[in-house]
Design brief:
Two copies of one chain form a homodimer. Chain A is an alpha+beta fold. Helices cover 37% and strands 16% of the residues of chain A. Chain A is elongated. At the A-B interface, helix 2, strand 10, helix 17, helix 18 and helix 20 of A face helix 2, strand 10, helix 17, helix 18 and helix 20 of B.
């Protein structure tokens, strides 16, 4: 098949450049002295039986991070970042992830704990591996790069080829070609990206460094013939799928392999449980297994290398060549040889390497794509110190290797902890959604982002699928309950009917009608507000009644904002937000307007700047709290209290910079979950139930939260209920204990998982 | 208690003018010859055991229409209109409601069917009444006017009075005063509103007109001592609640009354099952029972009379006077005497009547309210022919009474049938909500309009309460399913995952990105559209591929409407709307663009005008179909087909006035529910299920609706699913059978009612 020609003739370039990627990355959990930890895989990660993202490889300490298949390299990098954030923040405080493939210090065989899995077959398989290969070799970690061409591309190729084979066979042939050429040229990746440069005696079974390994550093012990390879008597053909199936089954039948998955090849066919099933289904994608961890990349693989490998793979089917079995063997030998090279010396195959990379560059130009990355890689052929092994060798030769590696591990963990409320890779989404994804990754739910802008996720546990929008809009709420809460008048009618205390309220559709009812309010405490606005606009509060003139003015102001106006009893007390989830109030929050507390030394301006240094404060709803501004509104608020910005308030004096208590204008959130009297929490649950809501943010005015609510003295008034209550402010409050509401959401959505029971 | 003074001092005027009203209106079902029908109460009204709005009084033919308690006279009139619409449209075609209190032709005793109720006690009570009073007297119908002061008003009075009685006793006293003064002055209402002018022999038990009834016409036989009154030996005191309870219980104990409700008084205390319970609870409202049907008012009582009675009742507590037991007796006698007066003669108590009405007028002026209605009533004292009885007498004396009454009955029914899709009284709401209310009234659900503008209802059957917005937003749908449907991209992803055929689609966030992918589409049929707009704006359809220039233009146009643009496979076929409710596709609709069919004679303009005469066509979504316009867009559409408005299309030629098929721009709706192949209906149900939706409007493109959908040839493509699908166009289509989807909504919401099983 002349793929290049078919792509050009049929304008398949955009489809050809699309692909589906997935990364599996193993790494050892270490302590700050560089030794491998002895703790178990954290229980908080849920069960490895089903966890899609955080697994263990051979050893209990060898954490494996697995991304889902994704259609963009950026997405893979985002997922790697996110799973690393979850892993690193969940691990014990004194543990880090080793950034290199090889352990800095190889433990004694006896100290290596094989992964403690539930599944007996998995355990038995690992025990067999211990027998055959020893434990130490298995302690070396790497990256698996899963790759699938865009299925539409393969279909288009097939349609245009008019081949007389089935689509499945056609597809398998395409991937066979890719595998063949990969074996032939994989040495290029080992040259550029090999990064396990030590061949220490402890690595080998007999604790002796074999003689055929050159002295000093090498490019990659893991990709060498002493890496994770089968015995020489294991021979599997890649000529055709049929030949592959026949030979691998023969190896198992002859006990040369205990099972098919013991066949360690740098390329694996995927698309079924075993080879015969792949033969039936066709190869659906390939797994490339020869990559070492890139210690310079925070997540074990650099984005430009992911892209480079993609371009390299595209090139391997773009060319006419399809390597023969003999050429495959040559390629494998070239790879072994490359792995043994001195990292700071030129490649023995420099000319072939450059020719191939120039070919990749040429292809990219024909596809109107940038070849910048390939040009960088070409430079590494002239400058071996630019390869990963080369860079590591320079560090090693300076005697800093261990120190540098540990420092890197620590700084990677620090990066994950820097903004503990955010989830890297998903930072364009709302904070609540970021935290929900964090928890879902931790617990092992299958997550799909259906729409980033719309905060739309699907979450799945076994066969149980749930959709979630904005963190807590779910199937647990009915459509009508959200509509009830969205309508203040309906909310109040329903709550009043159900016996809850709501402010008495009149609704007007024109000012004249409202003017006439002045007598209803003149000597009461009341509030005039537009029916549907939510941002405090057009609201007048009369805490001691109002003159007719002021009443009329307030009505007119409110009608400027809406065509319907409410005149409502003023409810005394302090406003608290109750977050109800199901049958419980899970969090209670007091919000107070933006403020600073004087110290007798600093100006208000300085105090604000000091308060704003809190890493929880930021802008644009991407932090749990908001920076306090010093604009006109704040200066007006100061003026009302008799201050200017340059005043120095006395010690302990609270100065407010806002009248409103919104978190989005710099307000402080104070968790009151434990302090609030239980009776009010029960009332909040009842309010949510009356509206049929599972998740609701109930706002109540309460004069004294320590006094129980009784029938005779209810002690509260409901302001409103919110159908999309913010969770963030409860999770990371300014003061008090954070309440992990996202876990409550998951717990209610997936009761069968016992999400919160797993919490450690 | 000096109420007038308390109102003035405490500015209670706005509260004093508020009240809660309810009307019960009996009337006989008659045939077009004026005789009472012999059919049963229609089964379609559901069960009288619980029906809150449509009941039967004494006789099976005596329909009773009951409004809920409402806080505005307008609302009562709206409900009366609505229940009349439901009653008149549901009754057999040849039946009408008699607009007068007295039957035109009194049936033989044997032909009168007592109401066929399920409840044994109800039946026994009616049998007892037959024994004691005979059947005929009970065939006379009237209006009960239920009245409650605004509870806040009574509380405010109580708070200001600082009386040393409990609030309940205070409230009872207030209503006792109202009752006393009502008895004293009720004759005024009989004078003005009495309207049962015949005292025919058939009315009396012995078929002899008693001698003490004056010859000729009278004001009200129903309010006379031959009306529905107890024997003379029934004596009940109204002096206090205690006296009332003692005496009425004594009457029952002495077998002078079979039970308390046999006590026929023009005023009844309400607030408990029996007198003793009312004593305990306090009187909560009064029922005034002396009104005849007003045959000049479409619904038995005129709005101005409802208002007049309200003003009259206000006056009865405004005045200091509290009639004594002796005065009560005088009042009753004056009422009997008034009822026997000649309708065209002046009242014997003209002076007192005018004095009272002038008092009402004076009160209204002090309250800054209009006294227009009272002034009209005052005129009726100078001109007896202006009273209801006077007007009727004029008709009677012209010999047209029977004819006029029948004509009125027929024209009232015609008025109810004029706009069969709309529900009078609720016409400011959306049509779907109007029809849902219609069905809910018919079936006997308790309905409360929680928010008119927001189309928010509560519906209740026994203890089962449901909220409904916009006709089909309910608790049966989850919040997330509506959000899934609201997001086209998410919808498509979910449907594709579930194996449904959706057009392949790419989403772009900037034009450059989209331009690059031209190759993906160039030789395919495709559509370019903004991600979120719904109104056809910015959409380009390429049915035969597109040049790169046109592709780029289309992308740019779409980006003018939205920040995200979809490029989607064009799906061939005709678009159908499937309305899914639960496990069934309940309706299928084909929508075709506004069009006319030529007849070889008329111009396009004339054809449009002729088509627009269909009463189903109107404006502003208040009719099932929309008027076809003849504006710029229509002229452009004509020009595309080579027409101008003055052209005369040949017979049978269809000329389109629009490219789009929206009903809101004059499109035709054609019901295809029966024609559509069952397989597509099942697919629509599956689509709704995949999104977790109970109610969904699924839009599918289908090339051939007669051919079954098969796995090999699906024969459809899903365009989108709507979470608030219009029901109206299915219920009243332009062509084909209407599908009563509102009944399906009720059926799913209240399965225990078997709503559709009751359908007749």
């Amino acid at each position: 098949m002349n793929i290049k020609q078919s792509i050009k003739q049929n304008k398949l370039e955009p489809l050809f450049t699309q692909a589906i990627f997935g990364i599996e990355k193993e790494s050892q959990r270490i302590l700050s002295d560089g030794t491998i930890t002895s703790t178990n895989h954290p229980a908080c990660f849920g069960n490895r039986n089903f966890h899609p993202y955080i697994q263990t490889d051979f050893a209990e300490t060898q954490m494996e991070i697995v991304t889902p298949p994704l259609d963009k390299v950026e997405k893979v990098m985002n997922w790697l970042a996110a799973i690393h954030d979850v892993s690193l923040r969940t691990m014990p405080d004194d543990e880090y992830l080793l950034p290199t493939s090889s352990p800095l210090f190889m433990p004694h065989e006896d100290d290596i704990q094989v992964a403690k899995l539930d599944n007996e077959a998995d355990v038995a398989y690992r025990e067999y591996l211990v027998d055959v290969y020893g434990k130490r070799k298995q302690m070396v970690s790497g990256i698996h790069y899963n790759f699938e061409f865009q299925p539409k591309f393969v279909h288009a190729l097939y349609d245009n080829e008019q081949a007389d084979v089935s689509f499945k066979d056609f597809q398998s042939k395409l991937y066979l070609k890719l595998a063949h050429n990969f074996f032939r040229y994989q040495w290029i990746l080992t040259y550029l990206l090999g990064a396990s440069i030590e061949a220490k005696p402890e690595f080998f079974k007999n604790e002796e460094r074999p003689d055929d390994i050159p002295a000093g550093l090498i490019r990659s012990i893991r990709s060498s013939k002493y890496g994770y390879v089968n015995n020489d008597d294991v021979k599997v053909s890649f000529e055709s799928m049929e030949a592959y199936v026949d030979t691998i089954e023969k190896m198992v039948a002859e006990d040369k392999l205990i099972e098919e998955k013991e066949f360690y090849s740098t390329v694996r066919f995927r698309g079924g449980k075993n080879a015969r099933e792949i033969l039936k289904n066709g190869i659906s994608y390939l797994e490339f297994r020869l990559l070492d961890l890139n210690p310079f990349a925070e997540f074990g693989i650099a984005e430009e290398d992911m892209r480079f490998i993609h371009q390299f793979l595209m090139y391997l089917i773009w060319i006419d060549e399809d390597a023969t079995e003999a050429e495959l063997e040559i390629g494998k030998e070239m790879n072994f040889a490359t792995s043994f090279e001195n990292p700071l010396e030129h490649s023995s195959y420099e000319l072939e390497g450059k020719a191939i990379l120039n070919g990749v560059s040429d292809m990219l130009k024909q596809l109107n794509l940038s070849d910048d990355i390939v040009q960088e890689k070409l430079k590494a052929f002239d400058n071996p110190e630019l390869t990963l092994a080369g860079q590591l060798a320079l560090i090693y030769n300076q005697g800093n290797y261990i120190e540098w590696t540990i420092k890197t591990a620590i700084s990677n963990k620090e990066a994950a902890l820097e903004r503990p409320y955010a989830l890297r890779g998903f930072e364009s989404m709302e904070l609540s959604t970021q935290i929900l994804i964090y928890d879902a990754i931790q617990k092992g739910l299958h997550i799909e982002v259906l729409d980033t802008e719309d905060q739309f996720l699907s979450l799945k546990y076994k066969d149980h699928l749930e959709y979630v929008k904005n963190g807590n809009m779910t199937s647990l709420d009915t459509y009508i309950s959200s509509l009830v809460m969205a309508n203040k008048v309906v909310t109040k009618k329903i709550l009043a009917k159900n016996g809850f205390i709501v402010p008495d309220s009149m609704e007007y559709h024109n000012a004249e009608e409202a003017f006439r009812d002045y007598g209803l309010f003149n000597n009461k405490r009341f509030v005039v507000k537009p029916k549907s606005t939510n941002y405090g606009l057009g609201i007048s509060i009369f805490k001691e009644g109002a003159s007719e003139e002021n009443y009329r003015k307030a009505i007119e102001i409110a009608f400027e904002e809406d065509s319907a106006v409410l005149v409502e009893d003023f409810v005394p007390g302090t406003e608290y937000r109750f977050f109800v989830a199901g049958n419980e109030t899970k969090a209670v929050l007091l919000r107070i307007p933006a403020n600073v507390v004087g110290d007798g030394t600093h100006t208000i301006e300085a105090l604000v700047n000091m308060k704003n240094e809190d890493p929880l404060r930021g802008k644009n709803h991407r932090t749990p709290l908001t920076l306090i501004e010093l604009g006109k509104i704040e200066q007006l608020a100061l003026a009302e209290q008799g201050y200017v910005m340059t005043d120095v308030p006395s010690e302990g004096t609270t100065v407010y910079l806002r009248d409103n208590s919104n978190i989005s204008t710099g307000g402080d959130s104070i968790d009151m979950t434990e302090e609030m009297h239980e009776t009010y929490k029960e009332i909040a649950v009842g309010i949510a139930k009356a509206m049929g809501a599972t998740f609701s943010g109930v706002d109540m005015m309460i004069p004294d939260y320590t006094k129980p609510a009784t029938e005779a003295e209810p002690g509260y008034g409901v302001i409103e209920a919110n159908f999309n209550p913010a969770m963030m402010m409860h999770i990371y409050p300014h003061e008090g204990k954070g309440q992990r509401l996202t876990l409550d959401v998951l717990d209610l959505l997936f009761p069968e998982m016992a999400v919160k029971g797993d919490q450690s």
